């Protein structure tokens, strides 16, 4: 959601903050702001819209300072206006905030009664006033913040500076991610290490409840007022893998990175055509006890989980449930003994998934149940990875485009590895079957490369979608979730209303929508359901619907009037959903570009959904 950058240095850090914000813009991009402390003054600039607008304002005003905080906003409380943009100021205090202060109204009433005047509709402004007020009695900025934190309810990360403390940056992590970037003679904070990679690769990952005080030369982390040690970790991520390179958009780059990302992800687990002995070795005992799997995730990650359900049940006879985290966390689900709870998340910070995980863990402890938790995640240092018993990383590299692409297909690859590992431990799959699937997995990057060759043809077809208002995606079996995913991709970046359906459900309702103006995208791999799917296609054609079919090259489906066919190279039906993700991603991408939307940063959305 919102993104925070801050720093304390000897040099002017205005450009560092702006560059950091640009790298965080995927988190929120409706307004941005920055405050620098210089000679006892807070110098602030805020602008509606992208960070580029703020950058222009800063280069015009030439404000500078060696202590500062900056923010890119995804509006929750109050519209995206300049007044609501962070940092918020009270007296000599400036604050940036990511997350939500749930009890802000109550706090605001109290502060107004004390005479504080609010200039924004945000929940954040209460924090600035509270710290200002606490400073009346607190002996230091740190102590003032410590006094304020227990009054705040919700999930938040904060960066706080004060004009009288030109070498001090206070930061708080409570439910929203925050890292400290360790420099030489300078230190920084950010919601995501990505923002700081150009200046350091040494990071301290704060824990929930940590309050830290940064000066140029020191970093102190406190828990309940006691100094604690937090390790400094060195990262080998490079700056370049987070850049767009020669591509027009991050999304396109990330689509094209999929063959390599999948290769990286499976390489960590495979040795030739077998699973490596050390792959998830620390989980063997836990996995041998499980009787069922419960997957929890949101959005695209949820779709990956839906496909894994087919795999768990068909391939290794393991019962598997999948649920959207925002539902799971609030419906008091029965926590079942000997269950493996799997969180799937690109970011590892999605608020609903994290809350569902924490709640499950609490309930299991309360009932003395034996459960195992694990995360499939793209960020090794994320909260979910740190808080689950086991983790399996998707080695996709940073995914910047809001629309998830390479994270999704690597999640699928990782989930298949997990299925095989559990089946091997439980002996519900033979070594021969494992070897066969592993061989196909190794082959997948090449099949994706071949599928990407259809890009131009898909671009040509996408022109037929530009004027459409609605679209249907249909698939069967593991391609039902791909239909859902295709619809999600199309709607989130092109703003065309799209629905994904299991093709067998067509005549139970959605067929009523089909007319001359309704494009229907069909996912047609060569599997056991192909003939049934062909019947569904007939049903659409008979009602005047226009078909866009991504079909196995040997499916026998041919192009004809109002039936456009893109041939997809033959792939083992088990792994076909990985490959069929590619054409739906390309279709959405091209439609969005042709419609002129902001592909990487679609309206109203943010990459990492750290508020519920
Ligand atoms: O980081 P996560 O995988 O937990 O994020 C979950 C969803 O917010 C995410 O997949 C979202 O649906 C994507 N923007 C879809 O492209």
TrEMBL record:
Gene label: glmS
Q: Where in the cell is it found?
A: Cytoplasm
Q: Which residues form the Glutamine amidotransferase type-2 domain?
A: 2-217
Q: Mind telling me which PANTHER family this protein's record contains?
A: GLUCOSAMINE--FRUCTOSE-6-PHOSPHATE AMINOTRANSFERASE, ISOMERIZING, GLUTAMINE--FRUCTOSE-6-PHOSPHATE TRANSAMINASE (ISOMERIZING)
Give the residues annotated as active site.
2, 607
Q: Which GO terms describe its molecular function?
A: carbohydrate derivative binding; glutamine-fructose-6-phosphate transaminase (isomerizing) activity
* HAMAP family per the UniProt record, alphabetical: GlmS
The entry's keywords: Aminotransferase, Cytoplasm, Glutamine amidotransferase, Repeat, Transferase
Q: What is this protein called?
A: Glutamine--fructose-6-phosphate aminotransferase [isomerizing]
**Keyword Nucleotide-binding applies:** no
